[in-house]
Amino acid sequence: MKPLPDTVRAEYRHEVTDQDTAVRWRNDLPVLATPVLLWLGEITAMRALEGYLEDDEMTVGLSHDSSHLAPTPAGREVQLTAVLRERTGSKLVFDVYGRDDSEEILSGTHTRAVVRRSRFLARLAGKDHASPT
Q1: Is 129 a catalytic residue?
Q2: Are 110 and 47 in contact (CB under 8 A)?
Q3: By CB atoms within 10 Å of each CB, which of 1, 77, 106, 133 scores lowest?
Q4: Known catalytic residue: 68?
Q5: Can you say whether the dihedral through the CA atoms of 21, 9, 47, 57 is positive or negative?
């Protein structure tokens, strides 16, 4: 990984569509689904790292510790922010926040790891030939 500046952050805006709602996750609520909100936090953290990864590097998600604080209906825009809080070896911990036009909707952390793409793909290919247990 290339050297990081003192502050690494990104913002991401997304308009909530019907495809993003909990209705798609077997719930009857037409609001932004928690799995989609977490995914948007991941995208934002990944964007914060754009330009800092070497050619054969990528990041993978390791964990989330976040709270979905309020509902957002389809048609509204959400804004996510990811700020790198800590780097320990290959692990990167981001503070992630989200807002819609009226209130905070997400607060928490998201951890990613820097890995070699070629090594990751080789490991994945090994599973293609392994028997499922």
Answers
A1: no
A2: no
A3: 133
A4: yes
A5: negative
Q: In tens digits, what is the pLDDT along the chain, a chain of 133 residues?
A: 999 999 999 999 999 999 999 999 888 999 999 999 999 999 999 999 999 999 999 999 999 999 999 999 999 999 999 999 999 999 999 999 999 999 999 999 999 999 999 999 999 998 877 666 6
Of 34, 57, 64, 109, the active-site residue reads: 34
Burial of 97 per CB tally in 10 Å (0-12, 13-18, 19+): buried
- Count Cβ atoms within 10 A of the Cβ of residue 105 and give its class: 0-12 exposed, 13-18 middle, 19 or more buried: buried
Count the Cβ atoms, other than its own, within 10 Å of residue 45: 29
88 carries an active-site annotation:
no
How far is the C-alpha of 96 from the C-alpha of 84, rounded, in Å?
9
Which residue is catalytic, options 14, 21, 44, 68?
68
Domains of the chain in sequence order = 9-127 (3.10.129.10)
Does the predicted model carry a pTM greater than 0.85? yes
CA pair distance 16, 31, nearest whole angstrom = 8
